[in-house]
Design brief:
Immunoglobulin-like; seven-stranded mixed sheet; six-stranded mixed sheet; oxidoreductase; binds copper (II) ion; Copper oxidase; Cu-oxidase_fam; mainly beta; signal; 512 residues
């Protein structure tokens, strides 16, 4: 259970102003420009260690800052002041040698009254536009680095050759650009893109680099699919600001995962969402550096999960809450019809903190929604697949800077595993506990959408019967994955707590 913390009073004052994080991006839907000021941030549990303190850390000394999952900084509730920003759609280029252009750049974002917070964004000040590809479509994307440091452009969840994946070996230097070819040769899914430069990933994501990447069905969908109307991306992130309301990563970072008390959804502080349609599809991304979210509806209503990281579930699964570790996605359908119109409804976190209040633009009691449903044909994992022997073992271990996979830290010059293209193998991922019990590690593999065969020998929950590229692994847990790489190249596999990744909790698999 989370410990209760007392937040200092007077956290939020509503004032007028403008802080739509996509204000200067093309095609940004207009929003109400509410604005707010925040009192001193609650900088709990973000102790830092220097290298000296880390040495000989075999006991309990120097553990301040360790992300004990029972002791995570609580989030401040949304006051529901600003309409949620919707990332604009990335516009297709005309008369160019490429189809899309994505530029990593610096900017400023007015989260707080009278303060310009230095941020990073793609084609704008914060976060990035949504890139939509059709199933089977091939596009050429020009990527350009206008930051003052190297970056890469990683297409998280897209099954592209290693050479197009944007891993740490694919750095683009400041001022440079290149064109990558992306083929969306996989089922419709909610993916995302973010930087992946060696030891700079956590900082660049923390400062604002992330965008949604959709693979969409080639044919018309039965599901709500009007972007920004009844089909809405929700990027949940927590951020920690310093006394000057800056995202000074070097000052604020925590080697065990930088967590903050400030909740942002699509980069909006204190968001609310005006809901126009009774049946809504939310594409939820945990875009945090480290925090796990457990999301539910404040009125206790159930919702349906329809997709996991890599596409549609076997069948829609009715849920009361969903837990997503860093980088995981879920598509959910919320049916507002029949809800009590007098009772406010919000998306809340596990401890009940309001993260996204809804403002219903219709009377839910008289509204009707057409529920979507389908039934699974075959079992998601066949008996044959379940009987396959484990051929690759992954052991996740450690915390803070002392994180390893199979006892080793990342070495760009070392290939850790090899696997043949198109040949499925069973990976067993074990999260080895330590003397303090251990912590959750979200395990991500590039270049593949895998199936979860089992968790500690048991079938995964119904909402995990869908393709995945990241999986939450509890301390002491053994998760078996069925992994197939459809393309060739060198791919990363790593913990998606971005500080763990930067600290070397990463390996390389060569697909031949
Ligand atoms: Cu980790």
């Amino acid at each position: 259970m989370k410990k209760a913390y007392l937040l200092s009073a007077g956290l939020l004052l509503a004032l007028a102003g403008c802080s739509n994080p996509f204000a200067d991006q093309q095609d940004a839907p207009s929003t109400d420009n509410g604005h707010m000021q925040q009192d001193e941030h609650q900088g709990m549990d973000h102790g830092q260690m220097d290298d000296g303190e880390m040495e000989g850390m075999d006991g309990m000394n120097g553990m301040e800052g360790h992300m004990d999952h029972d002791n995570v900084t609580p989030l401040q509730a949304s006051e529901g002041i600003q309409e949620l920003a919707i990332p604009p759609l990335l516009k297709r280029e005309e008369n160019a040698e490429f189809d899309y252009e994505v530029i990593a750049q610096e900017g400023t974002t007015p989260f707080f009254e009278g303060v310009s917070t230095q941020t990073f964004g793609y084609n704008g000040d914060l976060l990035g536009p949504t890139l939509r590809l059709k199933e089977g479509e091939t596009v050429r994307v020009k990527v350009r680095n206008e930051l003052n440091e190297p970056t890469t452009f990683h297409w998280h969840g897209l099954e592209v050759p290693g050479s197009a994946d944007g891993g740490p070996s694919d750095e683009i230097q400041p001022g440079e650009s290149k064109v990558v070819t992306l083929k969306a040769d996989q089922p419709a899914a909610t993916l995302w893109y973010h930087p992946h430069p060696h030891e700079l990933t956590a900082k660049q994501v923390f400062k604002g680099l992330a965008g949604m990447l959709y693979v969409e069905e080639a044919d018309a969908s039965e599901l709500p699919d009007e972007y920004g109307v009844d089909d809405i991306p929700l990027i949940f992130q927590d951020r920690l600001f310093n006394d000057k309301r800056q995202l000074d990563y070097e000052e604020l970072m925590n080697n065990d995962g930088t967590v903050g008390d400030v909740s942002l959804v699509n980069g909006t502080l204190n968001p609310k969402l005006t809901v126009e349609k009774p049946q809504m599809r939310f594409r939820v991304l945990n875009g945090a550096n480290a925090r796990n979210y457990t999301l539910r509806l404040s009125n206790g209503a159930k919702f349906k999960q329809i997709a996991s990281d890599g596409g549609m579930l076997d069948e829609p699964v009715e849920m009361e809450e969903i837990t997503l570790s860093a980088s995981e996605r879920a598509e959910i359908l919320v049916d507002f019809s029949g809800m009590d119109g007098d009772e406010p409804v919000s998306i809340v976190d596990g401890d009940g903190t309001v993260l996204l209040p809804f403002d219903l633009a219709f009377d839910p009691e008289s509204a009707e929604a057409e529920p979507s449903s389908w039934e699974s044909g075959e079992p998601f994992v066949t008996e044959e697949e379940k009987a396959m022997p484990v051929s690759k073992k992954i052991e996740l271990f450690g915390m803070m800077e002392m994180v390893t996979i199979n006892g080793k830290k990342f070495d760009p010059d070392r290939i850790d595993l090899r696997q043949e293209k198109g040949v499925p193998e069973v990976w067993e991922v074990y999260n080895k506990p330590d003397m303090m019990g251990g912590m959750i590690h979200p395990f991500h593999i590039h270049g593949t959408q895998f199936k979860i065969i089992s968790r500690d020998g048991k079938e995964p929950a119904p909402n995990e019967r869908g393709l995945k590229d990241s999986v939450l692994v509890e301390p002491g847990e053994r998760v078996k994955l069925l992994v197939t790489f459809p393309e060739e190249g060198v791919y990363m596999y790593h913990c998606h707590i971005l500080e763990h990744e930067d600290n070397g909790m990463m390996g390389q698999v060569e697909v031949y």
